[in-house]
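U., I forgot to send this yesterday:
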Amino acid sequence: MAIPNVLTRTPGFLRSFYFYAGLSFLVWMLVFDANDFVKQYDMYAKLQELQAERTYYLDNIEMVKKERAELLSSPELLEKFAREKYIMKRPSEDVFILVPNQEAN
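Result:
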């Protein structure tokens, strides 16, 4: 007699096969599937990181384009850039590179 009393007190949807099938499908999709919540969160975090990198590189490209335009517009700036960055020299000059001493710790 205890079993019918328990069955009458439980809601009808808990006695349905479709409820358990739907619940198991939902658990499968949220936890065990290849595209579960953890994977979706990781992919979202990676997307945010890549968008930040994209913004950084687009800004960097703009800065390089401005520097290039400045260098190509002025021969003096181009010479200064070549001397400082690539250690270029005129044929009659000698270039000495000074490197600071590295103390052994």
